[in-house]
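Predict structure. Chain length: 261.
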Amino acid sequence: MVLRVEDANRVRTLTLARAEALNAFNEELYDALADALLDAAADSSVAVVLLTGEGRAFSAGTDLLEMQQIATNPDFQRGKHGFPGLLDALVDFPKPLVVAVNGLGLGIGATILGFADLSFMSTTAKLKCPFTSLGVAPEAASSLLFPQLVGRQDAAWMLLSAEWIQAEEAHAMGLVWKLCAPEDLMATARRHAVVLASRPISSLVAVKRTMTEPHRAAIAAARERENAAFVELMGGPANLEALTAFAEGRQPDFTDLPPGW
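Prediction complete.
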């Protein structure tokens, strides 16, 4: 089981449960979370979804070992939804999405915050968008949503530097709404989720739709630009060096890449 599902007080809690892999997203987990969001959207007994992670990580992003297999094996069997299908489910999710970042969040473990309606973060957690360190492009419409959330320069630092963002920085820039002591994180996130869930679902859906609808076309365009850049860079010299270095347990060396890379 890679995802735990629990219901209480009209709040459906989804817990990423690949703790041994720091909740990194493989094809199985992408599919499980996408299906869970689609199910919650269609379930009239669910008003709010609360998403968190098991263990010391929220999510370490895409499983890089599986990513290397995808990059080098054209016969690799992909999932039903995969990463694009999860993004579709996040974009279309009509009810409030509350995210509780319990530990480190990399890649989609950070960019998913662009789709959260409320974000809570443990004071010991940290975030990273490792795209340039992997030789690839941004994802999940973060090139649009992060500047909207935190401003251009904070977004530029997150997306360009591939450096860790500590909880206090994430809160100060507006990427997360509230910081919590680790032992208080889930209770605080659940308390706020229950408040939302006590309201009429029809009204919650209407409010979220009026907030998100003006941005849908821009999100679709941003995803298209990011996907084109990702396809161009995936499997290129910088990306292959990054994935090889990860598999070999060393730091990547980009200094000997061909000109322009």
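Summary: The longest strand covers residues 3-8.
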